[in-house]
Amino acid sequence: MQRTLYVSAAASVVLMVGGPVAAATAASADTARTVAAVAAVSAVPTAETAEQASAAALKHYPGVVESLDKDDTVWNVDVITKDGKGHAELVVAADGKVTERNRDTNENAAEHKELLAAKVTADQAMKAALAAHPGQVSSVQWEDDEDGNAHYWEVEVRSSDGNSWTAHVDHATGKVTQSNSDDNN
């Protein structure tokens, strides 16, 4: 209430002294401050989706996402550094805040050779799976076959009708090579 009185009094003084041009300039400056404040609040990153959680994790710990899964209201994200020697287990909250659960800087780079050489990233695999099965990604995981040879991304998608889909996305082409449904209806 008191602020409103001050603003009204200031506007009156501006009108008396500077006339309509000064009043328009003052109003314009106030509008610009309001727009800037709203933009600042809107720019706060969130991690409500897998894609947002991945982006927040990579901003905190640059590298390559190895896995990502939702656990209640947080995302668990494993990131490997681009040289393969570092690994971080991160927790990304819905508000975008990232905390480290574990960090290792002495990884065996050879263990991550295929992941680092993959042409398709976790984010690209999620996009491919969502194109095949619209919904929300609940997890993505770098996988290999039982012999440890054929590598692919396994992406779980929950559709709006409650069904869950598991899609295998080829690490070289980005094509969905297999998918199956867990009908929860």
If you had to describe this structure to a student in words, what would you say it looks like?
- The chain is built from 4 helices and 8 strands.
- The protein has helices spanning 2-42, 50-60, 113-117, 122-132; strands at residues 64-71, 74-80, 87-93, 98-104, 136-144, 151-158, 164-170, 176-182.
- The chain has an 8-stranded antiparallel beta sheet with strand order 4-3-2-1-5-6-7-8.
List the helices and strands and how they pair.
Blueprint: H1 2-42, H2 50-60, E1 64-71, E2 74-80, E3 87-93, E4 98-104, H3 113-117, H4 122-132, E5 136-144, E6 151-158, E7 164-170, E8 176-182
Antiparallel strand pairs: 1-2, 1-5, 2-3, 3-4, 5-6, 6-7, 7-8
Low-pLDDT segments: 1-11, 21-29, 31-44
Distance between the termini: 54 Å
Number of strands: 8
Question: What is the H/E order?
Answer: HHEEEEHHEEEE
Structural class: alpha+beta
**Principal-axis shape:** globular
Order of strands in the sheet with the most strands? 4-3-2-1-5-6-7-8
Q: What's the pLDDT, averaged over the residues?
A: 81
Radius of gyration, rounded?
A: 25 Å
Q: Helix coverage percent of residues?
A: 25-40%
Task: Tag the structure with descriptive keywords.
37% helix; single chain; 185 residues; alpha+beta; 4 helices; 8-stranded antiparallel β-sheet
Summarize the structure.
This protein has 185 residues and is α+β, with helices and mostly antiparallel strands.
